[in-house]
Amino acid sequence: MTMTPRFSPFDATLWFASAEPAPATTALEGETRADVCVVGAGYTGLTTALELAKAGAEVVLLEAEEAGFGGSGRNAGHCTPTFTHYSLPDLRRMLGEPWAERLIARQTRANDRVGGMIRDYQIQCEWVQNGYVMGALHPGALGALREKEASYNAVGARTRVIDKAEVEAITGSPRFVGGWLHEEGGHLNPLSYARGLARAAMQEGVRLFTGSPVLGAAREGGRWRVTTPRGSVLAEKVIFASGAYTVGGWPKLDRSFRILRVFVAATQVLSEDTRRHVLPRNTTIHDGRGDIYVYKYDAHGRIVASMFPMGRRGRDLAYTKQVMTDRLTWLHPEIRETIRWDYLWFGELDMQVKTVPRLYGLAPGVVALTGLSGRGVPTGSMLGSILSEWALGVPEADLALKVEPLREAPFYMRFGPQLSLRWHRLKDNLATRRDGMALPPHA
């Protein structure tokens, strides 16, 4: 059976079936005014609007679909305050100072913001903060994990390299020779979190209009008129925060990144016996390979796992589920029940070359932010503080992201991320064989 991925986000997602209800909203009708118009009600737009409203600004938030429609409602729910691809020393070399240190400080403390907003607004979203483990499937992987421990701890994170016995006690898997434990890692129901942020923003006075796609923005006097099919907003400042789900709104904004697809699958509720042996401490697990397999539980005892499409994986439904099952049962040979994947859905990542967000100055009083590159929950949650600072008049030189001219993503980004995944898979396979260890199935 060949699977045709659907753009509609809630057809087969666990989160749509289990999330808290969305707040009541309506589409924008007629003309309204605001200090700031924010476009996109994902984590970035929601936290930006929330911060601005708390500071006393009049904010209108426009969303083409509903709060959490895009990546904020389609991700796997991991919340680990790290960077995806580059080490902290690499980031310092690429971004330069003071930008690198500012961004590192925001990202590595992002879970403080997530936990604080969940607590302050009593958001019901299955939030647990039981840590994150990046496993090592061969001894050669431990050196990089020791470097991560040193660099992240130096900026205040609580992490440590753990041995085979401890990683098995935490994960239940006998396959890892060691691992890197980030004690501040957490996980949640991402759509419930997005809907909770929407309620919080509305509670603070944000006017959220859903079903209101932005058609364009034009200068009118000293303000910007942001138009939707049935209304418009006159605002002093405009922030585009629609990420990978950007459709129109500003010329060429949707060309500033390239899409990398990811799929997420969720099992049936697993037996108590399985849950005693698999992830007994309810942590989030990364198998440590560049071609990632990341998994954790939801609140009801389902394994929620994610991978990137590659070849047949992600195109053929039966084969894709078999890959997911084989990897899970290889990592956890004590699983005795038949694994059934009841949910499988796709999301889209707005990828940048440097895999860090980019803040674009589009015109006087207008900015856009794209390029979260797969770090949605913690990154989107901390970006609101940066964008709100810009809107409140903090000088650009003092922001945690450099304001840049809008640039189209280079041509090679159309195939670069997939080639990178394949290259990392090859390197992992060679290193695993060199160390005399077993390869996971379908490696």
TrEMBL record:
Stored PANTHER family: FAD DEPENDENT OXIDOREDUCTASE DOMAIN-CONTAINING PROTEIN, SARCOSINE DEHYDROGENASE-RELATED
GO molecular function: oxidoreductase activity
Gene Ontology CC annotations of this record: cytoplasm
Name recorded for this polypeptide: Oxidoreductase
Keywords on record: Oxidoreductase
Coiled coil segments of this chain: none
Domain of life from the UniProt record: Bacteria
InterPro entries: FAD-dep_OxRdtase (IPR006076), FAD/NAD-bd_sf (IPR036188)
Domain FAD dependent oxidoreductase intervals: 35-390
